[in-house]
């Protein structure tokens, strides 16, 4: 049986997602880098958010006995890992201060965590509302 997430956990999840995304985007906006490099980091975070939520959904579907194709499950994991690798390679090779690299890495991880937690809370709440 799914337990309803507390309002505090829902709020913390949304706050983590918001701080991660807004912080990352403000950092990109203010960064002194070419537009194509900003586009790379923007694409990596958007693709990472989507792929991490896809992994969470696949794992949850499997736990609940909902059919998930192995190809989609594998692609979701591959995409998530690829995004982390691409961000790591990009930051390693970037001409940024170490503090800036750390900022992007932590904002990215916070946004990914927030997206997964928000998706989980949404699904838990939906399941509980359907069983009432």
From TrEMBL:
Pfam families: YiaAB. InterPro entries: YiaA-like, YiaAB. The chain crosses the membrane at residues 12-29, 41-59, 71-96, 102-118. The keyword Signal does not apply. Keywords: Membrane, Transmembrane, Transmembrane helix. Residues 9-61, 72-124 form the YiaAB two helix domain. It comes from the Bacteria. PANTHER family: INNER MEMBRANE PROTEIN YIAA (PTHR37290:SF1), INNER MEMBRANE PROTEIN YIAA-RELATED (PTHR37290). NCBIfam families: PRK11383.1 (NF008482). This is Inner membrane protein YiaA. It comes from Ferruginibacter yonginensis. The gene is yiaA.
